[in-house]
Amino acid sequence: MIDIRDRVRNKALHAKIVSAEEAAAIIKPGMNIGTSGFTPAGYPKAVPLALAERIKKENFKVNLWTGASVGKELDGALAQANGIDKRLPYQTNDEIRKQINSGKIQYIDMHLSHVAQQSRYGFLGGKVDVAIVEACAITEEGHIVPTTSLGNSASFVQSADIVIVEINTSQPLELEGMHDIYIPLDPPHRQPIPLVKSDDRIGTPYIPCGFDKITYIVPCDLPDAVRPLAPIDDDAKAMSGHLIEFFQHEIKQGRLPQNLLPLQSGVGSVANAVVCGLVDSPFENLSVFTEVIQDGMFDLIDAGKLTFASGTSITPSPDGLKRLYANLAEYRKKIILRPQEISNSPELARRLGVIAMNTAIELDIYGHVNSTHIMGTKMMNGIGGSGDYARNAYLTVFCTNSVAKGGAISSVVPMVSHFDHTEHDTHIFVTERGLADVRGLSPKERARVIIDKCAHPDYQPMLLDYLERAEKATNFAHTPHLLEEALSWHTRFVQTGTMKK
User: Fold this and answer.
1) Tell me: the pLDDT tens digits for 287-319?
2) Known catalytic residue at 291
3) Please, which residues bridge with residue 363 across strands?
4) In Å, how far from its chain's centre is CA 257?
5) Which residues, at least 6 apart from 110, have a Cβ–Cβ distance to it below 8 Å?
6) 0.90 cut: is pTM over it?
7) E strands within 124-210?
8) Is the confidence at residue 470, as pLDDT, over 70?
9) At 435, which helix (H) or strand (E)?
10) Distances (CA, A) of 133 to 5, 38, 253
11) Which residue in the list 73, 134, 250, 291 is annotated as catalytic?
12) 288 contacts 262 by C-beta, under 8 angstroms
């Protein structure tokens, strides 16, 4: 067993140090397990692996609640053991996705800012029974020092009857002090969140817990299983260029300050590439108020462009993780991690005037966005935090490639096959083809701008033909649709392998 006693600063707590197997034995079938982790960062590893082995022998299931997606040692291992009955609120694991789309796992896709409060209220099928939280240390008072993410950890610890803390010695102690934990009171006692800029500190650098609340402490030395980011391709560079040009125009119009407004960027390679493009932009003194801090944020810090980044998780590539740890003393001066009900708070997105930049699976000609479902039925990952920001941002941007599957799928369609973000919540669309600014436009005006600026040339004539025929058939209704054809592109792809006629 790894000696973790130096990191457990209250010696009386040393008696609670046990093996992962002993800790996992306290979990009963059907329990709601709330864990740390937001993307493959800061999630428990040893106890879930031990629990998965136990499930294989005893054949039972639990419900898994997290901050967002987590690593293979957590939901991956439990899914492989057929041990998950219900999962929320976001995932990216292949096996989890297969089981969701085959009906083996019941999945609740949620706005990430809603999870903590709804779990405290018991909306999600009871309360949190067990909280399993990764930490780099426990203070003298029994409070928990988190690692590379916060997510819903603080709320789960507050609510749970059983708290298991994994002390991960692969996580550097220098992470201590990067966190700002503030848990809002629930209505009717809630107060305004006292944060007015990205670098404000309003809470504690640890998760409040206390000596008596901790049930077990488990050693772990497994690192975060972070994922590589795709290389930045020409399409991503084009999207970034369109956005930079747009921001410059908004500055000239007096609608943005020279250093823009706090940036929010979604998870993944496209979002990271768009942020990376800002390194060579003319913008200085940028700030970030987002969920996930990826490699592109490090690039901006290193270039002297970014003054401060607030998030709930640090989720770099494998090379980016090495870079983080090698330069942690400097990065910690400009990075803060908060609970996701703060990082994703609609109140704060509106107050700060966030520029929200997220990715879409598809969008339609009227400005609705599908972020979650392939061909309208198969869950991909989930809505994540995009809706938290989209409805409340100063500017709401959605980026996507104009086509997918080698051109067999158009990302711009007559009607999206699943609605996550409505026309009322979207402002700007960007593909490698161009940028469509649909602010202040009626549905029919939006349609022509989106087709002209964002759609691929292979599909532009088909989209325009659909629009014009729909206008005539409906006598130029407010939002013209040919109901018998609106989803025919998706049907054609399912039947033939392409949306092209």
Assistant:
1) 999 999 999 899 999 999 999 999 999 999 999
2) yes
3) 369, 412
4) 27
5) 88, 89, 90, 118, 382, 383
6) yes
7) 130-135, 137-138, 144-145, 162-168
8) yes
9) strand 434-437
10) 17, 12, 47
11) 291
12) yes
